[in-house]
């Protein structure tokens, strides 16, 4: 039985196609539909039955996914190992789909959307960037091309997707940019220097993360950020009950994440301009300074 009414724009696992560039959220439906999407609890049985009745074609794929995930959860009780195993399974099917794009065209478009947004917010070639959950460099390839050699650092928990990140570097002839690509098991960022990055970026990572993982990241990201730098992350927003589906998709209230950032001494703000883009996740910017500014 399908458990979700909608999938994030860059999450493939439901096979529903979601909402990608060209299908803007405002165009997709009325304010009432947007409101329903924001308050629905996808883990509730009533919702799941209703969804299955409305989308019978999605029942079988969802059952397959639920079965696989149940088996992986038993085998890998901790979240990072579990999610890394989910990624390994998805990457075998398709690396584009594993990071949430139904095909190459959408992979390119989602990467460009992330890139354009940060360049619009002042990302220049001399800046240093850390991308958490870099995947197969859907956006990373554009950041790497834009930044000076050695200024991009991507980290990910999935060795399988990082091998595809290497392929992206070769395919787009980015070798001379010397990007750093590191495997990590946690978000303590211990191996990275202090006061170093102008921009830290995590797109569609916290949408797959339990609160402990986000907490760990927010506890440590301030150390690696420059005083005027910022950390942008997307998340699946709910204005109703916080919930998760299959330990793959997590829905948080904005105030939960803002409060968490504040507990770690960081400033946080909801990025309204991101909401205008054709992407169903929302974005929060956290920073050490109340008014972060790239220079
Ligand atoms: C949906 S993909 C998005 C990849 C990339 N940010 C993009 O937009 O193309 C999520 C990525 O985050 C990685 N990931 C998930 N949890 C993570 C964590 N706790 N730390 C680092 N990477 C993580 C996954 O392995 C996967 O590559």
Automatic annotation (TrEMBL):
A Pfam family it matches: Methyltransf_12
Region Disordered: start-end pairs: 1-31
Organism: Streptomyces calidiresistens
Keywords noted in UniProt: Lipid metabolism, Methyltransferase, S-adenosyl-L-methionine, Transferase
UniProt-recorded Gene Ontology molecular function terms: methyltransferase activity
Family per similarity comment: Belongs to the CFA/CMAS family.
Domain Methyltransferase type span(s) in chain numbering: 130-231
Protein name as annotated: Methyltransferase
GO biological process: lipid metabolic process; methylation
InterPro entries: CFA/CMAS, Methyltransf_12, SAM-dependent_MTases_sf
